[in-house]
Amino acid sequence: MKKQKICVIGDGLAGLMTALVLSKSDIQIDLIFKNKKVKKIKDSRTTAISESNYLFLSRFFKNSDLKIFNSCKNIDLYNEKSGQYQHFMNFNEQGKNLLHMVENKKLKNIILKNIKKTKNIKIIYGTVKKLDVEKTCILIKNKKLYYDLIALCLGRQSDIVLQLIGKRYIEDNSEEISFTGLVKHDKNIIKAKQYFLKEGPLAILPINKNIFSFVWTLNRNYRKIKSQNIKKLVSQKLKSIIGSKTKISLEQPKGFPVSFKFNTKFVKKNSLVLGDSSYNVHPIAGQGFNLILRDIKKLSEFIIENQSLGLQIKDSMILDKFTRSRKPENFLYGLGINFTSRFFKHNKSTSLLKEMIFKDINKFKFLKKLSLKISDQGIFP
Questions:
Q1: How far is residue 152 from each of residues 33, 127, 136, 162, 210, measured CA to CA in Å?
Q2: The dihedral of CA 16, 17, 18, 20: what is its sign?
């Protein structure tokens, strides 16, 4: 049987991880990079990975690679009220790891290092000019390359994705903006923390005991704030949270738009869309990359199942099964996160209800366990 070939287009986290995972099957992977300069990876973001997804990732890394992750056993939730921070919930599982924090640039470098050592992955540099869905073919460098399956991991603003699936999506654009960056400090912080502030939700993700990453989503009033002013605003807010006498060193925060967007169609014949091209979710729950990892894992399982039966990938039922498996969960997850974001926004209409909920919610152990299980394994594990 002729060796089957899969094309993965995109050099972000989704594209790199898709190529690495699928390469573990007896399949030739072509990974398309837009630019040849791949060593200088600039990404100020930090990703929080659930325990089950961390165990999945660890299958593809050496033990030495896993040192880039910082494991966290506790998550504290706070609500701002009258300038005070009310601690209303704590998540822990008797000393078990809940989250594993990693800087995106370090994770990309590790994945890329492993990709370069994998014989059946070929990196091709260039821009895909055209995608022929009917022939499962791409045009790059004036050459046509044919595949059994094409995975597009191209981010939010891709013309090729638009060409493939069109403008079929559900969207809720709140016009919010998230800022993120690393903070050095002289205080021992080892717990992940989520603050629901009047300006918007702020997460603290410890990289180690003296460095954490923050993600602060601000309402539309802050979209045009100048960079030096946002740095000052973040610094002031962090000091009010962790202590005014705490010494902090804050890099210039990077901003990115926030919205809920779900493509109702992400598969066409032998091509599919993965990652941000498929859906965007609010960063409040830190579930974006966790959803993508579950997508990649499920796709890999279906491909391996097909191979075990001696079936071809092309024109098979793999992508139909993938759609039925992942579309409902991703949609429900996105809606749930979007609802959570809206509920925790500061407004008079929900303040009394939230106050009543916060009073006793930490006592409901079943609810906490269910929330942890869904965050870790998804809605339909």
A1: 12, 13, 12, 11, 38
A2: positive
Residue 317 belongs to domain with CATH number: 3.50.50.60
Residue 292 lies in a domain: yes
293 Cβ contact list (under 8 Å, min separation 6):
17, 49, 53, 56, 57
Rounded CA gap, 110 and 142, in Å?
32
In terms of DSSP bridges, do strands 128-132 and 211-218 run parallel, antiparallel, or are they unpaired? unpaired
In a domain? residue 159: yes
Contact 177, 256 (CB under 8 A): yes
Q: Are 337 and 284 in contact (CB under 8 A)?
A: yes
Environment class of residue 96 by beta-carbon count within 10 Å: exposed (0-12), middle (13-18) or buried (19+)?
exposed
Q: Which domain holds residue 28?
A: 5-171+258-377
Residue 8 amino acid letter: V
**Confidence (pTM):** 0.92
CA dist 293 and 289 (Å) reads 6
Question: Is residue 81 a part of any domain in this protein?
Answer: yes
Give per-residue pLDDT as tens, 261-275.
Answer: 788 888 999 999 998
Number of domains in the chain: 1
**In-domain check, residue 236:** no
pLDDT digits (tens, 9 = 90+) for 189-233: 999 999 999 888 999 999 999 999 999 999 877 877 887 789 999
H helices of the chain, in order, are: 13-22, 51-58, 104-116, 159-165, 227-242, 288-308, 318-343, 348-360, 365-377
**CA separation for the pair 78, 75 (Å, rounded):** 10
Q: Which two tokens stand for residue 370?
A: 């269910």
